[in-house]
Amino acid sequence: MLFHSTEFLVMFAIVLFLYYLLPRYRAYTLGAANVLFYAVTGWGMLALFLAVTVFTFIGTRLIESGRRKRFWLFVTVGGNLFNLAFFKYSVFLLEALEHTAGIRLVSEDSFVQNIVLPVGISFYTFQLIAYTVDVARGYIPACRSLLHFWVFISLFAHLIAGPIMRGKEFMPQIEGMASIRFRLYNFRRGVFWFGLGLFKKIMIADYLAPIVDGIYAKGTMMSTGEAWTGTYLFAFQVLMDFSAYSEMALGLGYMLGMKLALNFKSPYISQNPSELWTRWHITLSSWIRDYVYIPLGGNRKGKIRTYFNLWLAMTLSGLWHGASWTFVLWGAYHGLLLIGYRLVKKPLQAVADKLSIPKAARVVVAVFAMFHLVCIGWVLFRADNLETAVLLIYKMAHVWHLRLTDSVLNHLLIFAALYLFHVLEYFAMKKGSKLYGIWFRKIPFPVRSVAYAAAALFLIVFTRGVENTFIYFQF
């Protein structure tokens, strides 16, 4: 059920009405809504999700009891990882084994070839693992109510594509939701974030999708200019699509009186790889840091081990995105960027200081370089296969072959407009409280009403009959 579908909007209106009408029964209202929301994907998928939820609920209670704590931690985390690996990586692992061994292990009509990836499994698995590990570490107590735990893990606002919520920040909100009162300020914030996400999805991401698909359909026949502009536009397609879902989720949370995590903070203004991962898919980045990088040893065991830990953590992050060598290499590539940045950071600063390069110029050059390094990675992410990705990157490296055809120029203009929007959004969010105050104190109510009506009409017209899925649903 998509956030911008009529069915979801009707369901959410009913849920919101019952939520504030019957505060004592909010857990039941949201629990039932979550079942309905996920059941649309299939009853089998719902049954699987319920099963792993109950499994983790029982496992964490056993972990907290202190008896055979390590054993139950291994069983609970291992069970969730097995569930994810079976549905997401079975075919990938068997094909890799076949290639290595040179023998056929799985026939075309085998049940393994027909495995359907449960929607949202990557996101809810990581949330279940984080919760389990945090209970084992003593950071949070194990939840005593299966209903509350179900609402925590399955809340429709963030279930399918994040943000990945931690128990410490979100479970208290679930357990205390009976005392939440309707606040107009939060509701307005919710409508704003939901509307912003809807605009990004319908007016930007879905507009870019056919353009990007058309360019990438040419495969290795793309010119150098098409490879660059197609990748520029894909960079914004995936950002606007994913941030749209996260911001709509944030809006739904505010309307329910809850606070979800902000997942994106203008990532394409990042000046280096480290900054990028504090702005892009923030909840996944912090998850990888806390549950992969630090347990591997982090930066506590010398430089060489630190570099290896960075690379391995990012490579696993790439594998999380999809069962394909292109995703694995995408993650490994970003791991190498992080290592490279650590190696050249001080020498580059020394050169810039020696040449007395102004701070503004340093920022512009750093942002320009970082964005293009990210775009090279996006080729791995978007290309149909590894061979195509390598050939496209090779073409992009030959910038002297660039020809500014009418098509390439038009796409560059679209890219320029998108980047301007990205920068303006950054400053708008930075001054959000001030702008909010100006809007409600300085702009007359009739003018605001007309603006709201115009925005609603605009979105209704452009969303009619359009229900394109989100890119990250496939992960």
TrEMBL record:
Subcellular location: Cell membrane
Keywords, alphabetical: Acyltransferase, Cell membrane, Membrane, Transferase, Transmembrane, Transmembrane helix
InterPro entries in the record: Ac/AlaTfrase_AlgI/DltB, AlgI, MB_O-acyltransferase, MBOAT_fam
Segments traversing the membrane: 6-23, 35-59, 71-94, 115-133, 145-165, 191-212, 232-256, 304-321, 360-381, 408-428, 449-466
Superkingdom of origin organism: Bacteria
Bilayer topology annotation: Multi-pass membrane protein
Recorded family membership: Belongs to the membrane-bound acyltransferase family.
Protein name: MBOAT family O-acyltransferase
Taxon lineage: Bacteria, Bacillati, Bacillota, Bacilli, Bacillales
